[in-house]
Amino acid sequence: MSAAATVSTHVRAATLLAPGELVVRTYPRPVELEPGAVLLRMIASGICGTDKHTFRGETGQYAGTCKARLTPFPIIQGHENVGVVEAIGPGGAAAWDGTALEVGERVVPRSGSAGGPSCCTCDPEPPCSGCRPASPTTSPS
Hints:
Blueprint: E1 10-18, E2 21-28, E3 38-46, H1 49-55, E4 60-61, E5 69-70, E6 80-88, E7 106-107, E8 138-139
Antiparallel strand pairs: 1-2, 3-6, 4-5, 6-7, 7-8
């Protein structure tokens, strides 16, 4: 983005309002980010099996684990993304390997978070995908 470019005060996202009812909505662009947060301009977002089930109204996730939950509508789907870092909250943010993220850098966010010592999905066979080291999340600009 050039210095002369203006920053939009709004962003758009495909929003699932109810099963089978997908619309593009406008949302306020975050003005202030919390510490460690990263604002991405999305380039692409993949669709996976979870998104297909959610589109049909099946919003239960992680059944049978300590992380079981229902996701209420409306839902902004998509957790397999590619984006460009637009802003970083106070204190900065780092990639999986500890490298500081920079504004303008292309990234592939990890679709889940590390399980850690309280991860119930590893019992009895660690490590689950959330506990194994992630693959690189940044790419050359």
